[in-house]
TrEMBL record:
Any one GO molecular-function label of the UniProt entry: metal ion binding
Pathway entry: Cofactor biosynthesis; ubiquinone biosynthesis
Organism per entry: Rostratula benghalensis
Keywords noted in UniProt: Iron, Membrane, Metal-binding, Monooxygenase, Oxidoreductase, Ubiquinone biosynthesis
Annotated PANTHER family: 5-DEMETHOXYUBIQUINONE HYDROXYLASE, MITOCHONDRIAL (PTHR11237:SF4), COENZYME Q10 BIOSYNTHESIS PROTEIN 7 (PTHR11237)
Protein name: COQ7 protein
Biological processes annotated in GO: determination of adult lifespan; regulation of gene expression; regulation of reactive oxygen species metabolic process; ubiquinone biosynthetic process
CDD domains attached to this UniProt entry: DMQH (cd01042)
Source domain of life: Eukaryota
GO annotations of cellular component type: mitochondrial inner membrane; nucleus
C-alpha cells in the first residue's frame, strides 16, 4: 500500500469494462504507462551518473516511487486490456539519455530535469482527473484514486527538485522549457501511437 492508501494489489480481471469509455481509458492508461516508464529511465540515467554522489540516495528514493507507479500501470494495462505505446523502445533510450545528460550538468542539472518533468506529469495527471470526473467519478473511482496519488507523488518530486537547487542549474529556464516541450510531445505521441 502506498502513502495515501492507494493499494498496489493486482487488479487481475476484476475491472468491469462494461460502460467504460474505451477511447478515453485506453489513451489515459497508455500514456500514463509510457510516462512512468520514461520516468524510470530518466532516474536510471541520473543514477548511472550521480548514484554514488551525495544526491544518489535522494534520486534512488524518487526512482523507487516511480518503479511502484510503473508496476501499477503494468497491472492496469492488463486489467483494462490496453496495449502499450509502440514508442516504448524510443522512450527507453530517450529517457535514459535525458536523465544521464541532465545529471552530467551536476546535481542542479538533475534536479532541474526532475522539476521540469514532474511539473509536466502532475499537470497532465490533473487534466486526466478532470476528464474522469466529467466522465463518471464513481465508475472510475479506483483509477482516479491511483492517478491522484501518483500526481501527489510527482508534485513531491517536483518540490524536492526545487529544494535541492534546481533553479541554480546552468540555463535553468531554457533547460526547463526544452524538457517540458519534449514532455508535451511525448504525451501527445504516446496517447495516440
Amino acid at each position: 500500500v502506498l502513502a495515501g492508501g492507494v493499494s498496489l494489489r493486482r487488479c487481475g480481471t476484476r475491472v468491469s469494462l462494461e460502460g467504460v469509455n474505451r477511447p478515453v481509458i485506453d489513451r489515459i492508461i497508455r500514456v500514463d504507462h509510457a510516462g512512468e516508464y520514461g520516468a524510470n529511465r530518466i532516474y536510471a540515467g541520473q543514477m548511472a551518473v550521480l548514484g554514488r554522489s551525495s544526491v544518489g540516495p535522494l534520486i534512488q528514493q524518487m526512482w523507487n516511487q516511480e518503479k511502484d507507479h510503473l508496476k501499477k500501470f503494468d497491472e492496469l494495462m492488463v486489467a483494462y486490456r490496453v496495449r502499450p505505446t509502440v514508442l516504448l523502445p524510443f522512450w527507453n533510450v530517450a529517457g535514459f539519455v535525458l536523465g544521464a545528460g541532465s545529471a552530467l550538468l551536476g546535481k542542479k542539472g538533475a534536479m532541474a530535469c526532475t522539476v521540469a518533468v514532474e511539473e509536466s506529469i502532475s499537470d497532465h495527471y490533473n487534466s486526466q482527473i478532470r476528464t474522469l470526473m466529467e466522465e463518471d467519478p464513481e465508475k472510475y473511482k479506483e483509477l482516479l484514486q491511483v492517478i491522484k496519488q501518483f500526481r501527489d507523488d510527482e508534485r513531491e518530486h517536483h518540490d524536492i527538485g526545487l529544494e535541492h537547487d534546481a533553479e541554480g542549474a546552468p540555463a535553468y529556464s531554457v533547460l526547463k522549457t526544452a524538457i517540458q516541450l519534449g514532455c508535451k510531445a511525448a504525451i501527445f505521441l504516446s496517447e495516440r501511437i
